[in-house]
Amino acid sequence: PTTTGSLVLTSSGTLNGKTVSCTKNVNVKSLLLCTVNSGPSTLEVGESASYSVSCTGGVTGSCPSSWTWTRTPLTAGSLSGTGAVRTFSSSTSGSVSLAASGTRNDNSQTVLCSAKTITVQEPITCTVSGPNEVEIGLTGMYAASCFRGLTSATCPSLAWTTSSGTITQAGVWSALDEPSTITATGSGGLTCSKQVTGVAAMSCSVAGPNEVESGKTASYTLTCSGGIAGSCDSVSWSWTPSGGSLTGSGLTRSLSVT
Fold it and tell me: What distances in angstroms separate CA 129 from CA 113, 179, 183, one per listed residue?
């Protein structure tokens, strides 16, 4: 038969002028096939998963009872277990093909199963970016970037926590006057963190003599306290005397009075 289904075999003959007949119902099955079809198609390095063989078609009981498993390339990962179920894991990334073969139970023919291709990926890592210092009373914005090896990857849903101050789930940190660790965590053990510090708000003062004789010149210097590193130098300072005249630039000015 070339198609599946049911058929009836009929045999008849004549004995002493009498016809004798008999019939047999036959169930026509499709050819026995097997596949490695269970288990994930994608794994991360160090992760393990179970894979199994299943048969379709063939006569009852023809599916092999024992299996030989192979992986291509042979050096990729490792297989453990027995029978129709094996556990695969790999310590390196790449593409691996898992295949199985066995001997039919009803005859000595070898059955080769359709292979399953597995992609082993580098695990996702992440980094937190944002300012190292934030003035108390202000907020800093922090974000996470994810990677597989050196390639950018989509981050899973992340939860934000902080050891000091408060942080929203959008990564906005409100500082206190102390160091803090901002941490982003995701599924699969993904975690990354950044050390940050809350600093006092910047204030400034002008140093120089309190008195200047008429016709003389005195030097005055602006100094800052608090604030994030470099914030004093990043400000464009305007100097305005209520009398006399100023010369100079940056944080130092000369005041001349007449």
Answer: 49, 16, 11
d(CA 143, CA 127): 8
Q: What is the average per-residue pLDDT within 151-177? A: 92
- Say which range, 116-120, 207-211, 235-239, has the weakest mean pLDDT: 235-239
Pairing outcome for strands 5-15 and 151-153: unpaired
DSSP 127-138: EEES-SEEETTS
- Can you name the residues that pair with 42 across neighbouring β-strands? 119
What order of strands is seen across the sheet that includes strand 133-135? Answer: 133-135, 191-199, 179-185, 159-162
pTM, full prediction = 0.63
Indicate the pLDDT class of residue 1, thresholds 50, 70 and 90. Answer: low
CB 140 within 8 A of CB 170: no
Question: Which of 97-101, 175-179, 194-198 comes out lowest in average pLDDT?
Answer: 175-179
What is the predicted pLDDT for the residue at 110? 92
Tokens of 116: 């399953």
Nearest CA among 146, 167, 148, 169 for reference residue 156? 146
Distance CA(79)–CA(84), nearest Å, equals 12
3-class DSSP state of 157: coil
Question: Predicted confidence band at 17 (pLDDT cuts at 50, 70, 90)?
Answer: confident
| E strand or H helix at 109 | none
Q: Which residues, other chains included, contact 20 with Cβ-Cβ below 8 Å and sequence gap of 6+?
A: 12, 13, 14
C-alpha to C-alpha distance for 47 and 91, rounded to whole angstroms: 8
